[in-house]
Write a structure and sequence with these properties.
single chain; 518 residues; mainly beta; seven-stranded antiparallel β-sheet; six-stranded antiparallel barrel; 6 helices; 33 strands
């Protein structure tokens, strides 16, 4: 395939100062003198996001703010209902007005549960897991798709899998669906003049250079580096910043199949939890809660600036000239060459990095992004956020955070009372979310046994991960899932910098982490 490196969009990782760590029970954090934060905004939403939503969705600023508030509520409600409904969950989407949350249910008896949660139940024949299975059949047969078939995706509002064919090629789309063995009633063919392609270009923005040649831009900062599009580089490719100072190396890349890459940066660069708005400012990133179908979403691009629209579908497959990419999110946001690789935000929540699309910002189009949570999970990465940016463990001295509590942990009511340790921390967790402890930072140990436990919220399940800094990123060295309300972990570890990561698996509520180390 053509491996030319073109310009993309996103965040330029900026140089900053170093941090320090000391022996437990004191903890390390960034030097306040070198920390940079994004401008404050009401409810955590930057004014630039409200302006872009107002322009592209024809809303007033108040309407845009109300819509974002509704979407935050919808994200939490969907996570709860998906767990409660199990196999009967048929997908969810916001109405065209952005105010009504629809939840499909395959069992009419579950409708009351949906109504009680504040959503509108929609009876369907198939749960979303069944739709995903149908799409998996199409994915397996993808090599038989002709160029007349642009792609396919799960469409939860119609409770079907949609195959997109070129105008006049409906028969080719039907033949492809039939050959896959997918149930006829679960697949429908629609036509659209779409020819998705990776969005390459050589134009600027906050760029980084690959092998001193082509350019792309950062998607989102992670501990130790950043994520971007997979078609920007291969493992081993070296990067320099916009200032031509050596920056890092592509540590992992996947394209086609997926479209993501991870760049590990050197000690001269400090990842920051912001996105360049290409309008003289930055937008904060405060998490990566996945927005539902129908939610508004905004993309920043070095070619076309900030553009907004809505999420149309998830788990979409696209047939690029270079090969098939699956698991993408489909949107009606426009994009043009040069917007590839950059950041997608729903409010202040990271959603993904630009993969490719069809059309342009004059006549409109369709654009796909690679979901960021998949990139984080597949590569065991931690997103850097504006509110609490983790810092890489340094070689020596510096400032320290306030001392840790030495009181035994007090588990929530109903949880095991013997979850105690030298240090304790509390927090709130929900399914699909993760928190780094202590306080989003790390601690140093001289080596030996480490013991920890987490008292999970009542009725919830969590995982506890112990992660060690390896010189470029934190890697999980031990993990335990909760049983009977408690996750317990013991590990014999060498000297180094460590942190704990609490991951929500089901349910939500307050947890207590207690740990000890030498």
């Amino acid at each position: 395939m053509d491996r030319r490196r073109m310009t993309a969009i996103g965040v330029l990782v900026a140089a900053a100062g170093t941090a320090a760590a000391v022996t437990l029970p004191s903890f390390a954090g960034e030097n306040p003198a070198t920390r940079r934060t994004a401008p404050a905004a009401s409810d955590g939403v930057a004014p630039e996001v409200l302006d872009a939503l107002s322009r592209d969705l024809s809303l007033t600023r108040d309407q845009a703010a109300r819509r974002l508030k509704t979407e935050r509520w919808a994200s939490g409600t969907v996570a709860k209902l998906r767990t409660e409904l199990g196999a009967d969950y048929g997908g969810s989407w916001l109405g065209a007005d952005g105010a009504t949350l629809n939840v499909a249910v395959a069992d009419p008896g579950q409708a009351a549960r949906v109504t009680a949660a504040g959503a509108v139940p929609k009876p369907v024949d198939r749960g979303v897991a069944e739709l995903d299975a149908v799409k998996t059949r199409l994915d397996a047969a993808g090599h038989d798709a002709t160029p007349d078939v642009a792609g396919w995706y799960v469409d939860v509002p119609t409770n079907s899998v949609v195959v997109v064919a070129q105008p006049g090629a409906e028969a080719a789309g039907r033949r492809f669906a039939e050959a896959s063995g997918a149930p006829a009633g679960a697949v429908r063919v629609r036509t659209a003049d779409e020819a998705p392609r990776p969005l390459f270009d050589v134009r600027g923005g906050d760029a980084y250079f690959i092998n001193d040649a082509g350019r792309c831009s950062v998607g989102f900062s992670v501990v130790g580096g950043f994520v971007t599009a997979g078609h920007c580089g291969r493992p081993g490719d070296r990067t320099t910043g916009a200032n031509r100072v050596a920056q890092g190396t592509f540590a992992a890349s996947s394209f086609p199949g997926d479209d993501w890459a991870v760049v590990e940066v050197n000690g001269q660069w400090t990842p920051q939890g912001v996105v360049n708005d290409f309008n003289g400012g930055t937008v904060p990133v405060n998490g990566s809660t996945e927005a539902p179908v129908g939610a508004s979403v905004c993309r920043s691009g070095s070619t076309t600036g900030t553009r907004c629209g809505v999420i149309q579908a998830k788990n979409a497959t696209v047939n690029y000239p270079e090969g098939t990419v699956t698991g993408l999110t489909r949107t009606n946001v426009c994009a043009e060459p040069g917007d590839s690789g950059g950041a997608w935000l729903s409010g202040d929540q990271a959603q993904g990095v630009t993969s490719g699309g069809s059309g342009d910002c004059t006549r409109g189009g369709v654009t796909f992004f690679q979901p960021v949570n998949e990139i984080l999970q597949r590569n065991n990465l931690t997103l850097v956020t504006a509110g609490a940016e983790p810092s890489a463990p340094p070689a020596g001295g510096g400032s320290t955070a306030p001392p840790a509590s030495t009181a035994p942990a007090t588990p929530p009511a109903g949880d095991a009372a013997d979850c105690t340790g030298q240090v304790s921390r509390t927090g709130r967790i929900a399914a699909g979310r993760a928190q780094v402890q202590p306080d989003g930072r790390f601690f140093r140990v001289s080596g030996g046994a480490q013991e920890a436990c987490v008292s999970a919220p009542a009725g919830a399940r969590v995982a506890l991960e112990l992660q060690r800094f390896t010189g470029a990123a934190f890697r999980t060295v031990a993990r335990a899932d909760s049983a009977d309300g408690v996750a317990r972990l013991t590990a014999d570890t060498p000297a180094g910098a460590y942190r704990y990561r609490v991951v929500g698996l089901a349910g939500a509520g307050e947890y207590t982490l207690a740990f000890s180390a030498r």
